[in-house]
Specification:
Blueprint: H1 5-15, H2 40-43, H3 65-76, E1 79-92, E2 100-112, E3 118-129, H4 138-141, E4 156-167, E5 173-180, E6 215-224, E7 228-236, H5 248-251, E8 254-263, E9 273-281, E10 292-300, E11 307-316, E12 325-334, E13 340-349, E14 356-369, E15 372-382, E16 392-403
Antiparallel strand pairs: 1-2, 1-16, 2-3, 3-4, 4-5, 5-6, 6-7, 7-8, 8-9, 9-10, 10-11, 11-12, 12-13, 13-14, 14-15, 15-16
């Protein structure tokens, strides 16, 4: 399952496929991808791009100054990279299931600015569980139709990014092609990242969208005047990042998305953003998955560079996505020293279940240093759809991140 990563890297350098250039940083357009807060481009930057990054300490730079000096030298030559490690532990009040879960994610990711307007982005991950149930599935284990620890699973070694970005000199359009993760750019907003913001899928990429795993794909984006933009993508609907392959070229099963959006300016593309996303996923040729399609709407606007109210809704045919219909509202907060916080409320209905479920999450991210973050959180799930004996479930979580 973990595969030969070296062979895969060589293979995908030749066969790459997509994302887009001016959607990279919260506040300042960069040379990287069309990507949002969970992308490599965002993760390579200290802080959040909004508040003044004056941290409480300089750890771990102060314990390995030579390492970071070497990284800085490479960055000046156009090659930036990070190694980071996440750990997430969660405790559930559910009477059924394991009641607790923990897992970790090790990542090696970076970007090489090969030409003035072209760059190569990569990310390799190892996701591993410390307990019999990983946090991603702890809500399901307790009877809630809810992904409570997005990305924190036990999927092993994954190649989640290896793509080339090409952009116009004036930034008016960008193409990306290669091993892509569509959740980096489909239906994004400022608090979308499960690594720095909410853990519940209800507040990440819209849970009514049947987004595929990272795989071969192509995407592009273009400015439409000074405030509007359009983004589209084609990606492997059956992708498996633990074993990247070219099967999509023969089976033709595709995930497609088209987004039309409005922003106050392209330097604030996912902080001040209103958009409509349409998507469709082909039925699999082996009959394991029927066709799926739907639409999602998102509105988020950063007020005084501090408060991020958001409203997000979606509806789908519901054959493979988590929910048929979903509505989320909430408020994000950008604090001093690049701290961050959020509170979100979600209502959802699912296919084949004659009832609805309510979810809430609140978190506070303490940014101790550019390389150390600690995020306690609490989730509440009312009327868990898979457990009629429970009226509600509460989950307490603690997420940490260290960056070298």
């Amino acid at each position: 399952m973990r595969g030969n990563i070296a062979r895969t890297l060589s293979f995908l350098v030749v066969t790459s496929v997509a994302q887009f250039g001016w959607l990279s940083s919260p506040v300042k357009a960069q040379q990287g991808g069309l990507s949002g807060p969970s992308s490599v481009e965002a993760d390579l930057k200290p802080g959040d791009g909004v508040t003044d990054p004056q941290f409480r300490s300089d750890f771990p730079r102060n314990v390995a100054p030579g390492w970071f000096a070497w990284k800085d030298t490479l960055a000046e030559k156009g090659f930036r990279f990070n190694l980071d490690y996440f750990a997430l532990g969660q405790y559930s009040s559910a009477d059924t299931g394991e009641g607790e879960a923990a897992s970790g994610i090790f990542r090696f990711y970076g970007n090489w600015q090969a030409t003035e307007y072209g760059s190569l982005t990569f990310k390799i991950e190892d996701r591993h569980a410390y307990t019999s149930v990983a946090p991603q599935f702890l809500g399901l284990d307790g009877g809630a139709l809810s992904i409570t620890g997005t990305a924190f699973n036990d999927n092993g070694t994954l190649l989640t990014n290896l793509f080339w970005t090409q952009r116009a000199a004036d930034g008016s359009w960008t193409l990306q092609f290669g091993q892509i993760d569509v959740t980096d750019f489909v239906d994004i907003y400022g608090a979308v990242s499960p690594y720095t913001a909410f853990q519940n899928l209800a507040f990440n990429t819209n849970p009514t969208i049947n987004t595929p795993n990272p795989g071969l794909g192509l995407a592009g984006g273009a400015r439409l005047g000074s405030n509007f933009y359009v983004v589209g993508s084609l990606a492997d609907a059956n992708a498996d990042p633990s074993n990247p392959n070219l099967d999509v070229l023969s089976d033709g099963d595709l995930f497609k998305s088209l987004e039309l959006g409005y922003t106050s300016g392209f330097d604030r593309i996912y902080l001040d953003n209103i958009h409509l996303t349409l998507w469709q996923a082909d039925a699999s040729k082996d009959g394991s998955r029927p066709e799926d399609y739907g639409a999602a709407f998102s509105a988020a606007w950063l007020v005084q560079n501090k408060w991020l109210p958001f409203f997000r809704a979606g509806a789908s045919k519901g054959t493979a996505a988590l929910y048929d219909r979903s509505v989320s509202i909430g408020l994000g907060y950008y604090g001093r020293n690049t701290d961050g916080a959020g509170i979100g409320l979600n209502w959802a209905e699912a296919r084949g279940v004659d009832d609805s479920q309510f979810s809430a999450e609140a978190f506070y991210r303490f940014s101790i240093s550019p390389g150390l973050q600690i995020t306690p959180s609490i989730q509440f799930i009312g009327n868990p759809l898979l457990n009629a004996d429970e009226s509600s479930i509460t989950l307490i979580g603690l997420r940490t991140r260290i960056v070298f």
